[in-house]
Amino acid sequence: MRELIYYIAASIDGYIADPTGGFDAFLVEGDHASVVFGEYADALPGHAHAALGIEPPKTRFDTVIMGWNTLAPALEIGITSPYPHLKQIVASRHSRAVDPAITLTDDPLALVRSLKREDGLDIWLCGGGELAGTLLPEIDRLVLKRNPVVFGSGIDMFGNTPYKPRTFTLTRTRSFDSGVVIEEYTCRSGALLP
Ligand SMILES: NC(=O)c1ccc[n+]([C@@H]2O[C@H](COP(=O)([O-])OP(=O)(O)OC[C@H]3O[C@@H](n4cnc5c(N)ncnc54)[C@H](OP(=O)(O)O)[C@@H]3O)[C@@H](O)[C@H]2O)c1
């Protein structure tokens, strides 16, 4: 069955963006980029593929889901369909005018459950933290690009989701000279603690 994979950059202390939504403190360059631009090239935006002169491989993901606050910065710079090579789903509780390539949903949990029953490649949970908090029960795998920086405060990886431990198993760790560590965790089935 296809999986929901939360693939993100994070600080040591678990933030995915600074308090204003920026991520300048994350390392773009370095040897970890081989994974970002290789294995996870499907998670690059269309304008990055164009700038790099590469085609999206379409082997890792065929769908992306993101919260409205994650799409909004792209809209502000005129990018209305950031991942045109993927089926793009955006969660919002409001009626929004969006590019025809984007599917809006006010029930991302139900939609993801339905998508997981369909055939296809894995679904990339792009973020942000609030949406990830909603989708936590359906996350099958976490892939964290852990950057060697402590933010102190910022946007939390799972927003303000209530305390409800869900156990994951560390399945792979890759350390890079850049200081980035890519950690992969798989959800232990039925691992919701009481
Ligand atoms: N480090 C990384 O790899 C990474 C990746 C992605 C994003 N980010 C960062 O994360 C930040 C955004 O995160 P965030 O936590 O503020 O926001 P978010 O999860 O991206 O978006 C929150 C919005 O999404 C909608 N939403 C969320 N949960 C929903 C639900 N259960 N049902 C319906 N709609 C729902 C709502 O939109 P409405 O207000 O329209 O109702 C909500 O206000 C940005 O700064 C972005 O740069 C970082």
TrEMBL record:
InterPro entries: DHFR-like_dom_sf, RibDG_C, Riboflavin_Biosynth_HTPR. It holds the Pfam family RibD_C. Gene3D superfamilies: Dihydrofolate Reductase, subunit A (3.40.430.10). It comes from the Bacteria. It comes from Agreia bicolorata. SUPFAM superfamilies: Dihydrofolate reductase-like. The lineage of its organism: Bacteria, Bacillati, Actinomycetota, Actinomycetes, Micrococcales. This is Riboflavin biosynthesis protein RibD. Residues 4-181 form the Bacterial bifunctional deaminase-reductase C-terminal domain.
